[in-house]
Amino acid sequence: MSQQQDSTQGSVSVNRVGLALFGVYVLLYGGFMALVLAGPDLLATRVFGGVNLAIACGLGLIVAAVVLSVVYILARASRDRPGRS
Amino acid sequence: MLHETSPLAIAIFAAFVAGVLWLSFRLGRKGQSAEGYYAAHGQVHWFVNGVAFAGDYLSAASFLGICGLIAFYGYDGFLYSIGFLAGWVVALFVIAEPIKALGKFTFADALDSRFDSRGIKLAVAISTLVVSVFYLIPQMVGAGALVTPLLGLPHWAGVILVGVAVTFIVVTAGMVSTTWVQFIKGSLLVFFCGVLTLLILNRGLVVNAGRPGPPDFTPQTRSIRPDGQVLIDGEPQSAEHDLRPVGTLASLPERYAGEGKTGPLGPLAYLATLEDSTVVTWRRQTTRDDDGTHDVFTPRERPAAELLRPGGYFKGLAGGSLIARLDFASLMLALFCGTASLPHILIRYYTVKDAAAARKSTVVGIATIGIFYVLTLYLGLGAMTSGFLDPTNSNMAAPLLAKSFSNTLFAVISAIAFTTVLGTVSGLIMAGSGAVAHDLVENVAGVQMTDHEKVRVGKLAAVGLGIVAMALGILFKGFNVGFLVGWAFNIAASANLPALVMLLFWPRTTKQGITAAVTVGMTASLAWILLSADTFEKVYGISRDLAPMPFSQPGLVTIPLGFLVLVVVSLLTPAPRHR
After folding, report:
1. Is B323 helix (H, G, I), strand (E, B) or coil?
2. Could you give all domains of chain B from N- to C-terminal order, each with its CATH number?
3. B129 near B436, Cβ under 8 Å?
4. How many CB pairs lie under 8 A apart between chains A and B?
């Protein structure tokens, strides 16, 4: 039990990186949903290579999820490496 | 629409399914202990587990449902893709590592790790079963939708075929074979969807799918008489008298006007060119009288730009009512919160050796799933303009898109879609079987079992769940599978997420708080769904105006409700001793 306790507390404390990245993604996702709800007309604007804002945002959110998860794993790996704080 | 069967398609399909079953049987010998059956000995490599996450997650809803929604309604289907992937961010950043550190076999283990409470185990086991069953329905409906055109079998036969195959996979080897089935399926699905996307881009956009003359705008009528006979435009349905396939391009931008086709296009140029084109979609009007149900499909030309923005499926978005917007917000919240609360996803964290492996496999999962969801956009839009859509069944869009290229590809894609269903359903039955045997029988009822007995009870539970899944799959025929899976996310997020998050981040959480939050979240979201307008209309067949609930997706209300119940009950009960 005590071992489980330790590992949980460990996870919660080191997970600050995770929570920060989570916060970033919540802003991106929430922002996009607000845009869908409040200004669907704006999303029809052509922005990037003739692609409209709705598609650009959608693809951007998918890419952002992948990029943030790679950032996370790199951050955690450098933390776990012995000899570094 | 009637669909011809081809011997080649049947042969490819049979080879796929036989291959998967053979593999499962071969691996079966490895999984005979409880540790092996429920958690594959915790020895699965993180990369394999990561792709298996994708195989587990990319269900019939993702493949058939989303492609169908995009092909029929445009951009709104892609909103499901965005929401489904976003949920993984919650899973990775918040849930993955603690859940690995806390549990052993099931999700109930993790929630109960600090308390040893029968109440928690009971509530969580029931919520696991409810979520798994709700998630099973769309998978089985998808299976039925697939075999109809491929093998020429009725819907129910497809459902039973999947049910039997999956129960076999789970019973032979539990988590070991389930993991490998999901790994193979995940890899094949992403690879072949990539191939299909390359073919779509290589074909470019073609007016009226390359058929001579302008698109046909004649309305079509399908009537289903009370005795079950199907009439097309007043004549009995047959190969000669069938619905015309729909969904084509009506015109291209000026610069291509003379040629009627664009030739190969890059990924962005494809989207941009489509935006400047017009497409032929159709309006469906359904009436009922003494002669049965009549659907009239009326083609109409629209600018594609209208379909490449939100509002085609979620009608309320474009200047609609507040209620419609709340319904949409509620769904997107449930998709975001639901992934990290799905029992069949959570148990996959117990198959790897430590938290670092759990983290790495989640990232592999996110990358694989992310790539797939980008492809869904092209598959859906490719289907929309392929000239091969069946207007009566959105779930068939992706396989029929493959058919627009070749019958072999159609057979391969259908077989992969079928293994897609196998992979996800086996994961769900695995989760349910663990909930019954490990949580309910062993921990709640207190039955002492040997290792061997634990596995046997789990296998019996798997057979029982397989039978329930088959019955529900037959009952829910005709629903879009993407829509159905939204409900499962709502229930999972409402029942499980508040307990999971608060246990990890609020030391004052008590066992009574967790039990109450899981029970209330699950009951409230389930009751809401059963009393919603969509259920009234589509399941009970009564007017949607009679439904008491203001909108159909409960998450916006029931997820915060779960948190509230947990906090209030925890504060009213004595603080936990340890900590």
Report:
1. helix
2. 40-203+318-328+335-478 (1.20.1730.10)
3. yes
4. 146
Tens-digit pLDDT profile for residues B373-400 = 999 999 999 999 999 898 888 888 888 8
8 A C-beta contact, residue B219 and residue B298: yes
- Report d(CA B98, CA A21) in Å as an integer: 17
Domain count, chain A: 1
B317: chain A residues, CB-CB within 8 Å: 36-37, 40
What number is the ipTM of this complex?
0.84
Instruction: Say if A10 falls within a structural domain.
Output: no
Q: What is the mean pLDDT of chain B?
A: 85
Do the Cβ atoms of B317 and A37 come within 8 Å? yes
A10 has pLDDT over 60: no
Test B275 with A32 for CB contact under 8 angstroms: no
Q: Token match 């507390």: residue?
A: A9
pLDDT digits 0-9 by tens, B77-88: 999 999 999 988
B-chain residues within 8 Å CB-CB of A76?
Answer: 356, 359
Check if A7 contacts B (Cβ < 8 Å). yes
**Domain extent at residue A49:** 16-80
C-alpha dihedral sign at B73, B78, B81, B86: negative
A61 touches chain B (CB under 8 A): yes
Q: How far apart are CA B143 and CA B151, in angstroms?
A: 12
Is the distance from CB of B502 to CB of B108 less than 8 angstroms? no
The three state secondary structure string of B341-407 is: HCHHHHHHHHHCCCHHHHHHHHHHHHHHHHHHHHHHHHHHHHHHCCCCECCCCHHHHHHHHHHCCCH
